[in-house]
Amino acid sequence: MEALRVRMSCRGALLGLAVAFLCSAGSVQSFGQSQDSEFTFLLPAGRSECFYQTAIKNGTMEVEYQVIAGAGMDVDFTILSPNGVRLILESRRSDGVHVVEPMEEGDYEICFDNSFSRFSEKMVFFEIIIEGQGGDVGGDDEFPGLEESDGSLLEYKLDDIRESMDSLHKRLERSRQMQTVLRAFEARDRNLLEDNLWRVSFWSCASMLVMLCVAFTQVSTSVGTFTPFLSTQCKAEKVFALFFMFHPLSLLL
Amino acid sequence: MVLSVPAAAVTLLVVWIYPSYALYFHIGETEKKCFIEEIPDETMVIGKYRTQLWDKQTGSFLPSTPGLGMHVEIKDPDTKIILSRQYGSDGRFTFTSHTPGEHQICLHSNSTKMALFAGGKLRVHLEIQVGEHTNNYPEIAAKDKLTELQLRVRQLLDQVEQIQKEQNYQRYREERFRMTSESTNQRVLWWSIAQTFILIVTGIWQMRHLKSFFEAKKLV
């Protein structure tokens, strides 16, 4: 009985230690991980890709997307709630911003559909910003388990400083997100411009070749077709032959 | 009482060892999913993923699938492969960019046995952290012995540095954009001049050829 109790208490202590260790390891893992994610991915032609985002109850989710490359530069966009209700459906848009609020418990499904396009692959950029109930996720408890400086006399001032630094941090994050969006816009314009450059070169070359071919064909066909007719003695026939040689529609006859 | 403690420990284990990553998607067996990250140079990128396999018997996704790994391939803006490695069912890959531009991160599963995918799909939780988001602040605090406020200041400094790097990269991109635009304008100009010139030359050639043809046939 005594031995059993000692063994149980030993085991309990070990378990407690393991739990404490895991707790600290877990707190490091869960530290300050922003729930915001942004991805740029390739959407092949005729395919549909879906991404799932786990929701925080009563939080806000902002989804922004942009098509940055691909002929047509448009894609179908859908957001489905965890219960399967289609909240947002957009057809063939090149960019959009949507806010889902308040959020239900579960996984939201965000889909990009390129089935209407048979050949062109699209590059889509999207960004999901999640905010908890009272502001951003990972607010005050971002650095748990750290020793706080002993500012018992300066407690009030330190709190002020801490608050302004927190707000600065959030605003800088927002600046980064804005930069990301601007970068996506610039990437889209750059892809469009590079496509234009290639198109200008190609079509100029093609049209010049066509021009030369047509000139050569015109001369050789008209000369070749009507040479026999010009050897007649009859003047009227000669006039007819000359007329048909130079009338462009005669080539179609 | 004896059973509840291990049960609680197991629950805590599950909660802490498997933190929920932000976004997940489904991938087929031979499917390759590619993500593009446009980053400035000397920027560290950490990608973390976790896979789950659909289990037909329980009708849900199993937490981990040993033996099923993912092959990760990363290409730099010059399409040169900088990382091509196989990882397990939970993996973490990291790289630092040396040239600014679009880096491509491609994932595909390495499963050769159809049986593992009998249910259909593999669920992949993915998180990609760029720049100062890769810094592990508790570790930095422990190493440099910083208080909370000092750590916060360090974080703000890193953020501002990353914003500055992005802005420099933006300047470099804008210069490239301007060069491409000027090159397009020049090409339009020169091709138009060339086409007009060739048109005139062809016209003259046509006239002269036909004139000599008529003179030969004694029509003129």
TrEMBL record, chain A:
Any one GO cellular component localisation term in the record: Golgi apparatus
Primary localisation category: endoplasmic reticulum
Signal peptide feature range: 1-30
SUPFAM superfamilies recorded: Supernatant protein factor (SPF), C-terminal domain
Keywords: Endoplasmic reticulum, Membrane, Signal, Transmembrane, Transmembrane helix
InterPro entries, A to Z: Emp24-like (IPR015720), GOLD_dom (IPR009038), GOLD_dom_sf (IPR036598)
Subcellular location per the Swiss-Prot or TrEMBL entry: Endoplasmic reticulum membrane; Endoplasmic reticulum-Golgi intermediate compartment membrane; Golgi apparatus, cis-Golgi network membrane; Membrane
Entry protein name: Transmembrane p24 trafficking protein 1b
Automatic annotation (TrEMBL), chain B:
Biological source species: Fundulus heteroclitus (Killifish)
Membrane topology: Single-pass type I membrane protein
Name this polypeptide is given: Transmembrane emp24 domain-containing protein 9
Transmembrane segments: 188-207
Main location: endoplasmic reticulum
InterPro entries reported for this sequence: Emp24-like, GOLD_dom
Family to which this protein belongs: Belongs to the EMP24/GP25L family.
PROSITE patterns from the UniProt entry: GOLD (PS50866)
Transmembrane in keyword set: yes
Cellular component GO terms, alphabetical: endoplasmic reticulum membrane
